[in-house]
Amino acid sequence: MPTLCTIESIKIDVYAQDHPPPHFHVRFAEYEVLIEIKTLQVYAGTIPPSLLRKVINWASGEGIQSFLLDNYLRLNPIRKL
Questions:
Q1: Rama region for 62: left / alpha / beta (φ>0; ψ in -120 to 50; rest)
Q2: Is residue 81 part of a domain?
Q3: Does 80 fall in a domain?
Q4: Domain count of the chain?
Q5: I need a surface site. Which of 41, 49, 65, 69 has the fewest CB within 10 A?
């Protein structure tokens, strides 16, 4: 589970062998949320709103969603059956 970025003690992680849809994990103290890369919507977990705003602002930056998706796909290659 590489930490791709740390924003004021908020860790942004992408896990290997993780489930779809492509997402990243945001961890801070006892909080964790999963955020879908394409929509930047939280689909699991909770985190204080002020911290979530910081993360969404960061993820909305130029090229960041591509960076996150590239790392998700690198760690979770699509398997052909």
A1: beta
A2: no
A3: no
A4: 1
A5: 49
Q: DSSP letter for 69, please.
A: H
Query: If DSSP codes are grouped into helix, strand and coil, which group holds residue 26?
Result: strand
Q: Label residues 23-52 b or e (16+ Cβ within 10 Å = b).
A: bbbbbbeeeebbbebeeeebeeeebeeebb
Domain hosting residue 63, numbered range: 3-75
Going across the sheet that includes 10-13, the strands are: 3-7, 10-13, 23-28, 31-36, 42-46
Distance of CA 79 to the CA centre of its chain: 21
